[in-house]
Amino acid sequence: MNKLIVGLILGFSTSLPAVAETPQAPSETPAPAAAAPQPEAGKHHGIKLKQLSEELDLSKEQEAKIKSLFKKHKQKIKEIREESKEEVKETLTPAQKLKLYQLKEKNKDKINALKETVKEEENKP
Q: Helix, strand or coil for residue 38?
């Protein structure tokens, strides 16, 4: 059972958005707009914990242990994401980096809308 829970936690929390960071674009790339506000660190873990708790009918003790596991591995996950982003950027040509930058700019509105939806869900009773 513990291995199942840890597997679920890692599965939920280790999605690797390898290209989410703005690449170092060539000098002709326009300067990025002001950074979008980031959601509070760890908020998604609360959502995932709530989902796990509901789906698996976790006890309060299990919830507390899983919450501490999320917290414990948060830095490792962040480091893996950053390493992955850097490796992807090293693989791309300057033209591909520019295109990636343009795609990211194009999708900012979609991402912000999704963040708002998550905030609304969190605020529901």
A: coil
> How sure is the predictor about 44, in pLDDT bands with cuts at 50, 70 and 90?
low
Residues in the chain: 125
Q: pTM higher than 0.85 for the full model?
A: no
Q: How far is 25 from 2, CA to CA, in rounded Å? A: 44
Amino acid at 33: A
Q: What is the DSSP letter of 92?
A: S
Place of tokens 């060539």: 26
C-alpha–C-alpha distance, residues 14 and 17, integer Å? 9
* pLDDT band at 21; cut points 50, 70, 90: very low
For 33-40, the CB contacts below 8 A with 24+ separation are: 33/105, 33/108, 36/108, 36/111, 36/112, 36/115, 39/115, 39/118, 39/119
